[in-house]
Design goal:
Blueprint: E1 5-6, E2 13-14, E3 17-20, E4 23-26, H1 29-41
Antiparallel strand pairs: 1-2, 3-4
């Protein structure tokens, strides 16, 4: 069975989930890339979603 989740950032359907603060959070590929780039630019800032 394939579980489709809704991306918490943009609302698109996605298969990707990430562990954030010990919770499984669905985030689609494009949003995840955007967040990762922001993390690389500001490594000292805490991740805000």
């Amino acid at each position: 069975m394939v579980y489709m989740a809704i991306c918490v950032v943009c609302g698109k359907q996605t298969l990707k989930t990430f562990n954030i603060n010990l919770k499984r959070v669905p985030i689609c590929e494009s949003c995840a890339v955007t967040i990762a780039i922001q993390q690389l630019k500001n490594p000292d800032r805490k991740r805000a979603i």
